[in-house]
């Protein structure tokens, strides 16, 4: 099997202005052409859950109140996975081009989390008009924009 090599390009952070990604200096040229995109896909490492014992977990009690009692890990968004990789789509609220600081509306990663890659969000490639989901979550909002007032606490077992 081919060996994999993953090298973080930066890390997440927070400051008085909110959440951001700080790119390493050598990756600043990779920002060229990102102007005009309103959102990015952030591929990051669940570093807080990178433990050998977690990598063998393939089933778990349902994290969803209305879901089945037990679920396969690939049917959840759990940080406990064979490879602790995460993807978050976030609105870009600003870019400091000289320093490589990308301000975000939100990211569900702790400060200091390694960022592996960035990709521009493009609806023609990334949005599915009519996604199919199980009945137990079909009442969830249709988008990030419409989920702000949704009672997410009523949906999860934690």
UniProtKB/TrEMBL annotation:
Enzyme Commission number(s): 2.1.1.-
Enzyme class: transferase
Start and end residues of each TsaA-like domain: 6-130
Keywords on record: Methyltransferase, S-adenosyl-L-methionine, Transferase
GO function terms (MF aspect): methyltransferase activity
A GO biological-process term: methylation
Stored PROSITE patterns: TSAA_2
Key word Methyltransferase present: yes
Superkingdom, natural source: Bacteria
Keyword Methyltransferase set for record: yes
Pfam family for this entry, one: TrmO_N
InterPro entries from the UniProt entry: TrmO-like_N (IPR023370), YaeB-like (IPR040372), YaeB-like_sf (IPR036413), YaeB_N_sf (IPR036414)
Record-stated family: Belongs to the tRNA methyltransferase O family.
The protein's name in its UniProt record: SAM-dependent methyltransferase
The organism of origin for this protein: Diplocloster agilis
